[in-house]
Amino acid sequence: MRRREFIAGLGGAAVWPLAAGAQQDERVRRVGVLMGATEEATQSFVAAFEQGLHGYGWMKGRNARIDYRWSEGHTDRIRANVAELLSLKPDVVLINGARALAAMQDATRTVPLLFVGTVDPVAQGFVASWARPGGNTTGFTLFEFSVLSKMLETLKQIAPNITRLAVIFHSDNPESIISLRLLETAAPSFAVKPIPAPVRDRAEIERAIETLALEPDTGLLLPPDIFTAIHRELIVALAARHRVPAVYSGRGSVAVGGLVSYGVDGIDIYRRAAGYIDRILRGEKPADLPVQAPTKFELVINLKTAKTLGLDVPLSLQQLADEVIE
To answer: Which pairs with CB-CB distance under 8 Å and at least 24 residues apart come from 100-104?
Structure first.
C-alpha cells in the first residue's frame, strides 16, 4: 500500500464514525449545486459529494434535497441557473467554477456559498483571506500553484525535446490568466517558451492546435479550465492527429486518450466539501471556515498514447504514477 493511500484511508476512517452518530432534526435541508461544466463531465464528482453527505447523515429524500444545475460553460445559462437555485431558498449552495461563483456572489450576500475549484480566491476577490474568508463564502481550491511546474516537469520527462509550450485556455477565464502568468515564471527553468493560446469555441481550438503544431518541438499544457474540460475529447483528438505531446490537469483527458495528466484529485475535494456543507447545515458560518487547499494529487499516464507518439515514458515516472493506462 502506498503512503498516500494509507493516509487517505486514515482520513476516511476518521469521518465515518462521526456520521454514525449524526443526528438531524426533521426539517429537510435544501442544498443547491451549481456546476460550470456538463452533467456528464461531473458525474464522478457528484457521486463523491453525495457519498460524503451520506457519510455525515444527510440522505436525499429523507432529510436533504439536492438541486443540481449544470451551466455547460455558457455565461447566460449560469445567470439563469443562479436565479433558479436562489428561488428554491437553499440552505447552502455548492459552486464549481469562477464565473459561476462570481454570478452567485453578485446575486446574494446572505445565502451560504461553498466553492470548489477556484484558483487564488483571495486575488479574485471572492474571500477576504484564506484563514478568515469573511462574508458568506468559503471553499476548496482545486488547484495549487506548484502544480503548474509539476505538469511542465512531467511533460519534459516524457518529451524532453520540447522548447515551445502552447497553453490553451478560454479567453474569458480569469483563472487561466493567473495560471499563465505563473507558468511564464516557471517555464525558463525548463528551457521552454510559453505560447498563450486563448480560445472561445471549437473552431478556435482547432485553428490554435493546427497552427501551433506547424512549429517543431511544441507541446501543449491545459491548465484547469471548465471550457477545455468540456472539449477534452476534441483537444485530445487534435493533439493525436498533429502528434503533439500534451499534459492535462485532470485524469478525464487521459482516460479518453490524452498522454499524461497531473493535478488535484477532484473526487477527494468533493468528498471533503461535503464535510463543510455538513458544518454549515449545522449552523457554522462560511466566514469562520478557512479556505482549504488541496492535499491529494494524482499522476495518470497513457502508455498507448506515448507509444503512438514515439515517446518513451521513464520507468521511474511510471512507478510514481497513480494509474498507468496500457
So the answer is: 100/34, 100/35, 100/36, 100/71, 101/126, 101/137, 102/126, 103/78, 103/79, 104/34
pLDDT of residue 75: 86
Q: How many domains does the chain have?
A: 2
Question: What's the predicted TM-score (pTM) here?
Answer: 0.87
Same domain, 27 and 176: no
Mean pLDDT on 102-107: 97
For residues 250 and 177, membership in a common domain is answered with yes
Separation CA 165–CA 138 (nearest Å): 34
* Mean pLDDT, residues 174-188: 86
Contact 34, 81 (CB under 8 A): yes
- Where is pLDDT greater, at 223 or 16? 223
Mean pLDDT of the chain: 91
User: Are 36 and 99 contacting, i.e. CB atoms less than 8 angstroms apart?
Assistant: yes
Residue 211, C-beta contacts closer than 8 angstroms, at least 6 positions apart: none
DSSP code at position 316:
H
113 and 192 both lie in a single domain: no
